[in-house]
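Note to self: keep these together.
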Amino acid sequence: SPPGLLLLTSFLLHMEEGRASPPRLVCDNRLIQKYIGEAKDMEKRTAHCQALPVLTCPTMLPLVDFSLQQWKSKSNETKRREILCDLALLVGAVAGARGQVTQECGARQLSQLYQHANSFLLLLQTFSWEAGPWEPGCSPRSIEQTHVTAIFLTYRQLVQGKLRFFFHDLAKDLCK
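Structure:
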């Protein structure tokens, strides 16, 4: 089964009726550690792909670095929206890169990354707090890149950083 389905299935099996509540994903720290490990593995496998091309059409990647102090001062809804913006831009970047990479190893890794990032995007779109559902149209801080490996680095940093801390923050409320 496609790897992204595990994330979505895990979430759907643990939803409460009416409002998305991801207890297992948030409360079981082993799951986010698993996704961090998968992001690292994808990044390593991509680094071993031979002759990855430089993208002729540069792609825009979100800048996913953040200040932990500023992050802690934001509401969960603000964090969710920020991550959604980053994921939406990343998913678009992966889709654009997939169209430019014909080499089998790189194309396979990009397809897997697309599934993972898109699953997180779909998952977080279902979360809703005070502001209602997410709507596209945000513009995160971004940078133009021509290297495929930068896409994987960005995804790993997003999962290891903002997503992990976001799930940690949610766990404080949901996992009492």
